[in-house]
Design goal:
By secondary structure, this protein is an alpha+beta fold. The protein has 6 helices and 7 strands.
Length: about 230
Amino acid sequence: MKFQKYFVIIFSVAFLFQSCKSPVEDTSKIELKTQMDTISYIIGLDYGIGINEQEIDVNNLAVYKGLVDGLNDTTLLPDSLKQVIIDEFNEELKTRMEEKGKIFLEKNKADGAMFMNENKNKEGVIQLNSGLQYKVMKEGGGSQPAVNDSVLVHYRAMFADRTVFDMSYDRGPAGIRLNNVIKGLSEGIQQMKEGGIYELYIPPELAYGDQNFANVIPAGSTLIYTIELIEIVK
């Protein structure tokens, strides 16, 4: 929003300005006395956090000047020039983010490949031709599902470092169709029998590949699923 764009870092920490000869007020002494004081601070804080997350090295005094000019309906730049500069910067930022994304992707895939290579030699781990690995934690005694079946499961989903990003145990069993989930999960569950508990080790090519999924699973991630196959749903 245009309104939000101008409300940036008005309440920045005082040391950002103290080294400059400027009439900018010492913002460290600002008190949030009213609701609008607090809202104004939150707007500035959130936007400042957003800038930091994008690693944009802004000139704080120029940001403050732009804020004041925006509030006073004045400008140092004509709109046509402003748009050209912003468009060029956005292209630079996009290129920079794409390059960082590629570096992160390659590292993530390399770390995952190292994990899978070491994991396949651990006791009890079985590797299939597809690259999927699994370990039987508890063997089941019921029926074995096929690719077009629906199943009821409990699961714990983790990254290769065993950081949990999703699980069913805190909300109840999940019903899934095996032809409507990632390949590694479908193939792994088809190895199981009802009542069994397996741990699946899924390389990115059998998971979400090079895509960032739902801003939860980074591109190139190797995943671990602990799966309890409760029943095949008829």
